[in-house]
Amino acid sequence: MRIVIPLFDQFTALDAVGPYEVLRMLPDADVVFAAATPGPVVDGAGPLSLVATAALGEITAADLLVVPGGRGARLNVGNEELLDWIRRVHATTRWTTSVCTGSLLLGAAGLLKGLEATTHWSAVADLESYGAVYTPRRVVEQGRIITSAGVSSGIDMALRLAELAAGRVAAEAYQLLIEYDPQPPFDSGSLAKASQEVRDFVAAR
Amino acid sequence: MRIVIPLFDQFTALDAVGPYEVLRMLPDADVVFAAATPGPVVDGAGPLSLVATAALGEITAADLLVVPGGRGARLNVGNEELLDWIRRVHATTRWTTSVCTGSLLLGAAGLLKGLEATTHWSAVADLESYGAVYTPRRVVEQGRIITSAGVSSGIDMALRLAELAAGRVAAEAYQLLIEYDPQPPFDSGSLAKASQEVRDFVAAR
I want to staple B157 with a disulfide (CB 3.0 to 4.6 A). Which of A79, B28, B148, B178 is the partner? Predict the structure, then answer.
């Protein structure tokens, strides 16, 4: 089970690491972080770099592709080299997936035309500009293309992928191992639930 | 607001990155990943390294200390150099915190004696061996020492820390920005909720 997570400057770290922490437990998981050039790749906030151990050019196939988002995803929607790589690897996958604005890269690669898909709540118009039908669900499955909503939703998507790949008992076990029994102290995690004051705070930021 | 996240070989990546993705948004956040030696630090599963940009020895103070767990935490409970560093930095913090088995390092450093604390469900006896009173809550606050349960609980803890540091509206806004509206496909994230079959699967692993 080769799992490939491409990295690019200004990606969002949790988009990549949330799913990783689940999917690495799959039987025979072989997870590869890849980037244009192997080595440290800096995240969108700046203090954190993850190390890519492979060059994108070395990766010609994957069982599972997980494309993270972040400011870097928006910056790369015109990066034909990356989009071409996504298309080529997608042709080989069992599942091609995205977290947050990673869906914009799938869209820019032409993979979402006419499909239901999701993304971070702030990127809906961008997603639709690629011919996707935005669907405000946390995880949207369209055959072997699966998209998830903002940042933290990648964990929920990964548990569903684990179920698809290894069955429900395994997936529930991975949930137990990462003790994913979420109890956020607030209930403001979606636009529909956040107060006007919170939405104003975000808008002013 | 200096936030320090120490890394050591075989840490659990999500323990560090979950809280990071929230806390980096705090006003004037200055997040530093530190390790015995700066450079890539490999996680417990092996495919992922995060880059430490500072040496532990360079860090003498922090407003917020977040100690991740993982196999590496258990391996370091006898590392007097690390424990001494934790004690010294703790003397300067507003909050000293842990995720998952990071609490074992706080315990080994002598910080949890007689305090209520939590950890990953698999490490309860170890935690209690340091004189802590295990409390099966997701986030346990004891003054300026705050511990959280397994892996993913660091996100919930970080939102509470954000509230303490920047107020409730800011914390709710960060929750919205990472779209943390958890919808796991299963409900097996704690020992109490997991089925016997799932617990057997984990035990056999």
Answer: B148
Which chain A residue shows the shortest CA-CA distance from B155? A184
Kindly report, residue by residue over B21-74, the tens digit of the pLDDT.
Answer: 999 999 999 999 999 999 999 999 999 999 999 999 999 999 999 999 999 999
Q: Average pLDDT in the A126-151 region?
A: 98
Q: Closest approach of chain A CAs to the CA of B110, in angstroms?
A: 25
B177 contacts on A by Cβ (under 8 Å)? 150-151, 202
- Report, at the CATH architecture level, how domain B2-204 is classified: 3-Layer(aba) Sandwich (3.40)
Residue whose structure tokens are 């929920």: A156
What are the pLDDT digits (tens) for A162-190?
999 999 999 999 999 999 999 999 999 99
Residue A203 burial (CB < 10 Å; 0-12/13-18/19+)? exposed
Q: Is B112 exposed, middle or buried (0-12, 13-18, 19+ CB in 10 A)?
A: buried
Cβ contacts (< 8 Å) between B195 and chain A: which residues?
A: 172
For chain B, percent of residues with pLDDT exceeding 90 = 100
ipTM of the shown complex: 0.97
SS3 A24: coil
Active site residues of A: 100
From the candidates B86, B100, B139, B159, give the one annotated as an active-site residue: B100
**Are A179 and B153 an interchain contact pair (Cβ–Cβ within 8 Å)?**
yes
CA distance B111 to chain A (A): 24
The distance of Cα B64 from the centroid of its chain, to the nearest Å, equals: 11
Pick from B1, B12, B178 the residue to mutate for testing the A interface (most A CBs within 10 Å): B178
Alpha helices in A36-167 (DSSP H): 71-75, 80-90, 102-108, 124-128, 153-166
Both tokens of residue A17? 């690491």
- Closest by CA to B26, choosing from B166, B173, B155, B175, is B166
Q: Which of B2, B22, B183, B187 to mutate to probe the A interface, most A CBs <10 Å?
A: B183
